[in-house]
Design a protein that fits this description.
With about 110 residues, the chain is an alpha+beta fold. It is about 25% helix and about 45% strand. It has a four-stranded antiparallel β-sheet. A two-stranded antiparallel sheet has the order 5-6.
């Protein structure tokens, strides 16, 4: 099992409750493939450099999870089917890159 960091971008029309429900769905997809969500942190609403699917803003969320590398492509395919996700970026993370945020959830440290 490898540790991964995933950044989700949700549409600006979604409220906090809808984002929470969507995060449960994405976590369930990871767990269906035998993975485990380690932490989730909401970054907030950000303006895009250029419009993305006719959207000017999006809500960013960072999630750290463990998953078998052989199942990563399956996870990406499942995320593409989710209409609530504008964009998903998954990269490999290291255990030392995780820190506690104000909500007692772990997020990647920007400054190490």
């Amino acid at each position: 099992m490898n540790l991964y960091e995933c950044m989700y971008i949700f549409p600006e029309q979604m409220d906090e409750d809808a984002i929470g429900a969507a995060l449960k769905e994405t976590g369930a997809e990871i767990e269906k493939l035998g993975g485990e969500v380690k932490s989730t942190a909401r970054i907030g609403k950000r303006k895009f450099a250029r419009p993305l699917k006719k959207q000017e803003f999006g809500f960013y969320v960072v999630c750290n999870f463990e998953l078998d590398p052989a199942k990563l492509d399956q996870l990406r395919k499942r995320f593409k089917l989710n209409e609530n996700l504008l964009r998903v970026q998954i990269v490999r993370a290291e255990e030392g890159d995780l820190v506690e945020n104000a909500d007692n959830e772990k997020v990647e440290a920007e400054n190490g």
